[in-house]
Description:
binds calcium ion
Amino acid sequence: MARILIVEDERKIARFLELELQHEGYEVQTAGDGRTGLDKALSWKPDLMILDLMLPELSGIEVCRRLRHESDLPIIMLTAKDDVSDKVMGLDMGADDYMTKPFAIEELLARIRVGLKKHRASATPVSHVLTAGKLTLDPARYAVSWDGTPVALTKKEFDLLKYLMEHKGQAVTRDALLTDVWGYDYAGDTNVVDVYIRYLRHKIDEPFGVKTIHTIRAVGYMFSYE
Ligand code: CA
């Protein structure tokens, strides 16, 4: 279910949009000023944001400008007046689309669908096959093989190996692995990383008599193998 963040200080409009979007099956959160909106955009990680232009604390333009440093979240800007310079500025600052109030809800819903679809299309990762010597990892097929022989890995083992191979020759910390492979939920419990490194060594290094995953003392691990 797509998440939509509504940043709008006019409560009646915010409430109306919230109900309409929930009715369409979206998960919705609202923010009544620009600063809260920016914070929620970064922490809740919505799939799309509806952003009013005239907001207290931080203007819609400013929210857009700051957000664009960190996120390619689709933004539909709402402008109270049909002011061309505001629209142009909003689009310059990275808004994907805009609507002038008052608007027909059906039109907004249509634009939301377009925004979400475009974003999903651009977010689809281009999967490159990773290789190191006889080891091959194909992200598109979720397949790992050694010299043509399939190696059966669990999803998490696969994700971990993929991350290590993508950072071939670089020492990666346990914290980075936890954050990027496991996500924030596991933050703090780095034992899980060591456990999974052991699983990988057991499935790759040991059976094939090689050393692909190296322990970097006081840091973490490094994948290095040609
Ligand atoms: Ca406003």
